Amino acid sequence: MNKTLMLALLAGFSITLAEAFRVAPEKYRGWNHVKSMVIFDQQHPLFNPFSGVHHVYVNHKGLEAIKKEGKRTFPDGTVIAIVFYEHVLDKGAYVEGAKRIEAFMVKDRKKYSSTDGWGYFGYDGKGKNLVKDMAKDCHSCHAQVKDRDFVFSVWTK
Amino acid sequence: MNKTLMLALLAGFSITLAEAFRVAPEKYRGWNHVKSMVIFDQQHPLFNPFSGVHHVYVNHKGLEAIKKEGKRTFPDGTVIAIVFYEHVLDKGAYVEGAKRIEAFMVKDRKKYSSTDGWGYFGYDGKGKNLVKDMAKDCHSCHAQVKDRDFVFSVWTK
After folding, report:
1. Which of A149, B92, B133, B155 has the smallest number of Cβ neighbours within 10 A?
2. Do B29 and A30 touch (CB under 8 A)?
3. How much is the pTM?
4. A33, pLDDT greater than 60
């Protein structure tokens, strides 16, 4: 096997891994709705890349943990979905426009041990993979909330 | 029975009827999330009384109908929940504040025949009943979308 072919195969393999996990909207929109937010102005630290209306959902496995205030630990099998839409101005209101991003956090302590048990997956509105390196692209920022088991979202009361 | 007692009993009975239907957030937030919106400025025609962040959910019975474009008919047993939170400004973003209103539409063609098959229920953030007269307080406005079976909400794609 020549070096170019081997690199191509390795590249293919890593893309397959990164795209391995995805949940259909029909499914995650029937999970539990955790919270929502509209980031509409550049002054917000997350405006780039997370501008727009976003909603966070959790599957049944992670429901109890995400409701906890303070320290929490999500069980293996937890999946958190975040969907981002463009924020469209409509006479004094923001409504949901085109889908911008779909992102998923998957808890599996063994499989994702190098990122503290979390797998990160993200796609643009056309389904193109956005995550090249889970540790660098996602987990480095989530490390801010290590005591919340790396999940920012708080259950809206 | 004196007149005062009779009026008190009648008043009690009508309050019981109006408050008869309510779904807990733990339940409707696990239904299907239909759409969301943030009404933040007085120029929006629904600002009073529907300002803030709102989310619409539908139970399994009404899922197929609410996804339909154009004409649709919801089956008996459909329940639609709408929850309104205050919109809190946070450095270029709106987040969910205190709960303002919880409202429910219940389809039962026999029970609510005088309002085209829909029962309407609403409560403020403290649980106080807001609907005195379903026809006048709610259905008169929903009549605008008769061809959509009196439901404004459209499934976000």
Report:
1. B133
2. no
3. 0.88
4. yes
